Amino acid sequence: LLCLYFLLWDQGLPDQSNIMRTLAKLCLFLLMPGLVIHAQTPVFNVIPQPDQYKLYPGAFELNPQTVILVPENEQLHHIVKEFSAHVKQVTGFEPAITDITPLAPAINFIMVTLHDSDTMLGKEGYSLLVEKNRVILMAQHPAGIFRGIQTIRQLLPPQFNGKQCVSPQAWRMPCAKIIDKPRFPWRGMLLDCSRHFMEKAFVKRYIDLLAFHKMNTLHWHLTEDQGWRIEIEKYPRLTSVGAWRKADGGGRYGGFYTRDDIREIVAYAKRRYINIVPEIELPGHSQAALAAYPEYSCTGGPFEVQTEWGVFKEIYCAGNDSTFVFLENILAEVIDLFPGPYIHIGGDEVPKYRWEHCPKCQTRMKQEGLKDEHELQAYFIKRIGAFLTSRGKTLIGWDEILEGGLAEGAIVQSWRGFDGAVEAAKMGHPVIVSPTSHAYFDYDIKAIDLEKVYSFDPIPADLKPDEAKWVLGGECNMWTERAPQSTVDSKVFPRILAMVEVLWNYPEKRDFEKFYDRVQLHYRHLDQLGVSYGLEAIPVSMSAQWEAAGFKVALDPRLENLQIYYTLDGDSPTAEQAPYRTPFHLQQSATVKALAYKNNKAYGDVMEYRIAVHKASGRFPGTNVPVSPNYTGGGKGALTDGFRGSLDFRDGHWQGDHDGNDRC
């Protein structure tokens, strides 16, 4: 049947194409019966979980006799050669690669091929049949084949995803039928390499990690107030000056990517079917560029590359035509380096102070009939957008680009909640959804944990079905103000696993408890990939209830299989102490320190809670001012509940009120 299928498919004559196609489809259905598959209940250790799958008894064993069959196709050959080379690296044997022919004698084989008999799979979908003696991977496009290879990698033992040769073992994967395709065409991660410079090898490593989890977009944040990271030949001071800032304790901190580095990384991503979207910030977040070329500011400088985090008033001058020449020259070189269809221009957090006091900017507003500085920003973005359009590129900007009027054809990335996505989609503009509430992985686990990310739906509830079609997908954002390269893994993982599944599967197919079980198994793969993953959630929460002239204090594990240890004397707890069993009573102020253990290892850091016992404890002071829903602090008893707040406004103990203008 295999031989017949490919003989008919590959050798069909033009005047017999319909007959050949029909017969080929018949062979396909004989090869892969039951294409409509319903998911089963057993834990299926693949992330993201395939759209449809069914498990069967038995397993396919990858061994020295395994042959990989592939048709004449350059992209497919490249994919299987990389796979075969990896097999050799970890197993010591290298499967032979041979063309598919009617006479192929292989008994134990993996067959990889393209077909267009099932248009529902789309560009990134694939079908995978795993039987005891054969694996058949089919897709309409090489990208789908590549995604299917990642499923094969996850079905094999975790050691398969390491980098070193493993002593002989059985390399088996379970028999299964899979039909898989993504829900959204845009599944990405933003990596901010401007606040903290990331080494080239590190960026490539993250491309590999994204590919392994079937993501398809790396949003690469390359310019900021704190550093300019991309070499521009026409303006060498952007990197000789703008790429470096004063380091703590003296010296310089920074770095940049040469044009050759960029080309290497882009090519590396392309081979893994990941598109890189560069972000060149304008008109704000531009002080590093203005430190190098202050003449494009409103005041003429001088400036220094920023060493602090935040939003700064030094921005590009909108009234100076030479500013646009400068930016267009930069973008022309960026376009040359990034062949993808999109250029992200930022457009967020633009303070208007300099424009309000700049004669040139005020003149520009009068000339263009602009009523305020918001419309001046829209003018700025639209002018840049027209340039990008003339070069065949699509502009993407943060949701602030909606203010003052949206550039024609622009894509809006909504980060300040979902409102920007709703507004843009209702206007008929494509949107990428990455709200701070679910997608900002620089936020502490206290604010966004694994389950919170898993609850995310990129399609806002306010959109009608015909409006929801404008939602391209979403991203998780790894801003690095407080996350140098060494800490990125623990911020991104395991939370990105939830984002991966959210962007691949429909909500009705998701189940957090089953996903959580798969994550526990998936850690074995991450260990082999060298990922220093962080926490799933705050391991321990504490509650205190006023009882009998004191607080009854309970330590509650937030995850399964945790053992908790605590102290009241200021020392850090250890596993040498007696574990926490039942609530305890405090009649005087104390500092409770708690540490969780999971699998005999400390899970997270020591958590510290300050309990204050005083004359107002257990009483409820009244207030006539409405409490902000964003900062309830625990409700009516927040001021006397025993908990002392911290400097972290997300710690759950801050209480804010409204001033009548909907501001806290």
Count the helices. How many? 19
Separation of the first and last Cα atoms: 70 Å
Poorly predicted spans = 1-42
What is the gyration radius calculated from CA atoms? 28 Å
Q: How many β-strands, per DSSP?
A: 27
Give the proportion of residues in helices: 25-40%
Average pLDDT = 90
Largest sheet: 8 strands, parallel, barrel
β-strand amount:
15-25%
Structural notes for this entry:
It is a single chain. The chain is α/β, with parallel strands linked by helices and 664 residues long. Helix content is 30%, strand content 23%. It has 19 helices and 27 strands. The chain has an 8-stranded parallel β-barrel, surrounded by 6 helices. Strands 1-7-5-6-4-2-3 form a 7-stranded mixed β-sheet, with helices on one face. The protein has a 3-stranded antiparallel β-sheet with strand order 20-21-23, with no helix packed on it. Strand 20 (540-547) and strand 21 form a beta hairpin. Helix 1 (2-11) runs antiparallel to helix 2 (17-31), helix 5 packs parallel to helix 7 (259-270) and helix 9 (321-337) crosses helix 12. The protein starts with a helix and ends in a 7-residue tail after the last strand.
